[in-house]
Structures are given as structure tokens and as C-alpha cells.
Design a protein that fits this description.
GO terms for molecular function: nucleic acid binding. The chain is an alpha/beta fold. 34% of the residues lie in helices and 20% in strands. It has a 5-stranded mixed β-sheet, sandwiched between helices. Strand 2 and strand 3 form a beta hairpin.
Length: 173
């Protein structure tokens, strides 16, 4: 399928969701000797991002502060269908929200709109290219100051998401 995309015959997008909260994803941080580094951690609110990304860094997304369920996934794919102009394939994993009755009932309708769903083999997140995006955002692009308060997190995350493919580039190798 990737060969067909590279030759311009078939757009291929990778879909997934990821969550962002005030609890930093960074496993460690540097600090000056003798200084205490305080990282405020707050449980609770979470920004869930559902996104579609292709190898040319065309990125389409929606955010939700509530639970990310099948209805939200279907909503994103419905609005993505309105954007496509030719047969397009969306690659995604086997999460319960992607295999639910609500989701599976939409697959035929999406095919009629030239959107085709391709499920990855179970337990193979390394095949979903959008996983690289979530990793870059959490471990490299999201500034440490983003975790200071909820407004900072929303602002920093939105700034990154809106600039994927321009300021924030992923090289798929």
C-alpha cells in the first residue's frame, strides 16, 4: 500500500488517538546541582487528540477533553470523508473503539464515500506511523512549561498540532 501512496495513486493515512495531561510524559529531567526541580502533577483533566497523518505530514485532527469513544472516532472520520477527493485508506489499530458496533456499522458507508479502513495486525503499534507523532510531541516538542497549568498545556499542544508539517516535521524513514 505504501508503494501506491508514494506513486500518488492512493492516499494513505494513519489514525490513532493519544492523551495529554498535566502529568509530564518525560521520564527524567536535568536540574542544576543543589536546586530542586518541581514538576506539578495533576490528575484529572486530559486532552485527547484523535488524528490522521500521512507520510507527507498532512495532518487532520480533533481534540476532546472528555472520553474518547467510538462516537468521537466516527465523528472525526465522517468529517475527514468530506475532505477527501479520491479513494483513501485509513490504517488503524484494533482498539475496542475501532471494532465497536457503532464503528463497524459505518465502514460500508465510508467505502461508498471512497474511504477504506485497514486494520493492522494485533499488537503491532510499530506499524502505525502516527505513533511517531505522539512520541515526538510528548518527548521532544511539548515544552516543559506546558505542564505548569491547564491553560499552558492547551496552548502549547494546540500550537504544535496546528503546525504539524510546517514547524514540526517528522521524517519517515
Amino acid at each position: 500500500m505504501e508503494c501506491l501512496q508514494e506513486q500518488g495513486f492512493l492516499p494513505l493515512y494513519y489514525y490513532d488517538e493519544s492523551g495529554f495531561s498535566l502529568t509530564s510524559a518525560l521520564p527524567y529531567a536535568w536540574q542544576k546541582q543543589g536546586k530542586t526541580l518541581e514538576i506539578p502533577a495533576a490528575k484529572g483533566r486530559r486532552i485527547n487528540v484523535a488524528g490522521l497523518l500521512n507520510r507527507q505530514a498532512d495532518f487532520y485532527y480533533q481534540t476532546h477533553t472528555g472520553r474518547m469513544g467510538s462516537k468521537e472516532v466516527v465523528s472525526l472520520l465522517d468529517s475527514f470523508c468530506e475532505k477527501i477527493q479520491q479513494k483513501t485508506v485509513v490504517v488503524l489499530d484494533n482498539a475496542p473503539t475501532h471494532r465497536s458496533k457503532v464503528f463497524m456499522e459505518k465502514v460500508k458507508q465510508w467505502q461508498e464515500q471512497d474511504l477504506y479502513i485497514f486494520f493492522l495486525p494485533a499488537y503491532s503499534p510499530e506499524l502505525n506511523k502516527i505513533e511517531m507523532l505522539w512520541k515526538k510531541i510528548k518527548y521532544q516538542w511539548l515544552d516543559f512549561n506546558a505542564y505548569m497549568c491547564w491553560d499552558n498545556l492547551q496552548q502549547h499542544l494546540t500550537q504544535i498540532l496546528d503546525n504539524i508539517g510546517q514547524k514540526y516535521i517528522i521524517n519517515f524513514v
